[in-house]
Design a protein that fits this description.
By secondary structure, the chain is α+β, with helices and mostly antiparallel strands. The protein has helices spanning about 1-30, 40-55, 60-85, 95-100, 105-115, 120, 130-135, 145-150, 160-170, 180-185, 190-200, 205-220; strands spanning about 235-240, 245, 285-290, 300-310, 310-315, 320-330, 335-340, 350-355. The protein has twelve helices and eight strands. The strands form two sheets. The chain has a four-stranded antiparallel beta sheet, with no helix packed on it. A four-stranded antiparallel beta sheet has the order 2-4-7-6.
Length: about 350
C-alpha cells in the first residue's frame, strides 16, 4: 500500500506544479514589462533635443511616435526639452506635436512663457488653437492668462496679441468659469472681438457661425446682416413643432403634449441658427413638449431634436442643467441641441414650447 501511495504522489505532484507554473505564467503575461531604459539620461536628452530641433511637416508623426515611445523612461526630460524648444524662434514647428505630447507641466510652462515672458513673438493668432487645446486639457495652465486679464489693470495688447486673446476666449468650450470670464474680458477688446465674430458669422462653418451670433447677443454687439434679436427675459429660439431626437428616423414627428408651468430660471435671448427661409404661414400646433428618451445623458453629452421648421418659438427648460443651441439641419430645417452641463448624468429632459407670433 505504501508503495502505491508513493507512486501516486510521484505522478500527481509534478503535474500540479506544472499546472501552477502554467497558471502563474499566464497571470504574469498580463503585465507589461517596461525593461531598463535604452539610454543614459544624458544621451536620451541629446536624442530628444535633436528630434525636436529637426521636426518638420514631413517627419512630424514619426517624431511624435518616437518621443511617445520614450515617455515611459524620460517623461521629465521630454517635458523640459519641449518647453526649451518652445522658447526658440522655431516654435511654429511644434504646435502640432503639443497635443499628443504635452502634459500639465508643459502646458503651464508654455502658457507662462508665451503670455508673460515673450508675448510679442510667442503669443499670436497662429498659436491660438494650440493654447485652446492646452488650456482645455490642463485648466491650471490658463491661470496667468486669466489672472492678468481679470485683474484691476487690463493689459494693453498689440493687435496680434488682442486677436489671439479674443480667439482663445471665443473658442474655449463653455466649461467652468470660462464663459463668464470671457464676457468680462472681451468688451475691453471690443473692436477685435467684433471683427472675429463677423468673420465667424460669414464663414462656412455653420456651428461656428451660430456660436458667433450667440456671442454677439450676449455681448450686446450689433451683428452684421440684422442677425440680432431683441433681448428678452426668456430664451427664444426659432422653431415650430415637436422635434425628432437622434434615435428617431428622420422625418418622424412626436405628438406634442400640453404645456406645463414654467419653474426654470431666467433665460436670455438666443438668435436663430442659419437655415432656410421659413414657410409663409404655419398652421401647426401652437404649444407642446419635447422630451428626451433612451438612457441617461452623461455630463457634457448632447441630445438632439431634429427637423425643426423655421418659425419663431419660445422654449422653457431648466437652464441650471441644460444649455441649448440651434444648428442648421438638413434641407429647410434646424436642430435644437441640448447639452448636459450639470455634474451628473440626467435621466430625462423636458422642453416646453410655444409659438411666438
Amino acid at each position: 500500500m505504501d508503495r502505491i501511495l508513493q507512486l501516486i504522489f510521484r505522478i500527481l505532484v509534478p503535474s500540479a506544479c506544472l499546472a501552477l507554473l502554467v497558471t502563474g505564467t499566464t497571470a504574469l503575461a498580463q503585465f507589461k514589462v517596461i525593461g531598463p531604459p535604452p539610454y543614459t539620461p544624458s544621451v536620451a536628452r541629446q536624442k530628444i533635443k535633436a528630434l525636436l530641433e529637426g521636426i518638420d511637416p514631413t517627419n512630424r508623426q514619426q517624431t511624435v511616435d518616437t518621443l511617445s515611445g520614450l515617455l515611459s523612461w524620460y517623461r521629465d526630460i521630454v517635458d523640459d526639452e519641449l518647453i526649451t524648444a518652445w522658447k526658440k524662434d522655431t516654435r511654429a514647428n511644434l504646435t502640432e506635436v503639443m497635443g499628443p505630447l504635452a502634459d500639465a507641466k508643459v502646458a503651464s510652462g508654455i502658457v507662462q512663457f508665451s503670455w508673460r515672458e515673450q508675448r510679442p513673438t510667442a503669443f499670436n493668432p497662429a498659436y491660438a488653437s494650440m493654447f485652446v487645446n492646452l488650456m482645455t486639457r490642463f485648466p491650471e495652465s490658463s491661470q496667468p492668462f486669466l489672472d492678468d486679464l481679470l485683474g484691476p489693470q487690463t493689459p494693453d495688447l498689440s493687435p496680434p496679441e488682442a486677436e489671439a486673446t479674443c480667439r482663445i476666449l471665443l473658442d474655449m468650450p463653455d466649461i467652468g468659469m470660462w464663459r463668464k470670464s470671457a464676457l468680462r474680458i472681451l468688451p475691453h477688446y471690443r473692436r477685435t472681438a467684433e471683427s472675429l465674430l463677423a468673420q465667424d458669422i460669414h464663414g462656412s462653418d455653420r456651428e461656428k457661425s451660430y456660436r458667433a451670433q450667440v456671442w454677439m447677443s450676449d455681448l450686446k454687439m450689433d451683428a452684421p446682416g440684422n442677425l440680432n434679436e431683441q433681448q428678452s427675459p426668456r430664451r427664444r429660439l426659432t422653431s415650430t413643432r415637436a422635434a425628432v431626437n437622434d434615435s428617431t428616423p428622420t422625418g418622424a414627428d412626436r405628438s406634442p403634449g400640453p404645456p406645463a408651468a414654467d419653474s426654470s430660471p431666467t433665460r436670455r435671448a438666443l438668435p436663430a441658427a442659419p437655415a432656410a427661409t421659413a414657410p409663409a404661414t404655419y398652421n401647426g400646433a401652437q404649444t407642446g413638449t419635447l422630451e428626451c428618451v433612451g438612457g441617461p445623458i452623461p455630463q457634457n453629452a448632447e441630445y438632439v431634436f431634429r427637423n425643426l421648421p423655421v418659425v419663431k418659438m419660445q422654449l422653457d427648460y431648466d437652464t441650471k442643467i441644460w444649455d441649448a443651441r440651434l444648428a442648421a439641419g438638413d434641407g429647410q430645417t434646424q436642430r435644437v441641441i441640448l447639452r448636459n452641463k450639470s455634474s451628473s448624468p440626467q435621466k430625462r429632459c423636458t422642453v416646453h414650447w410655444s409659438v411666438v407670433p
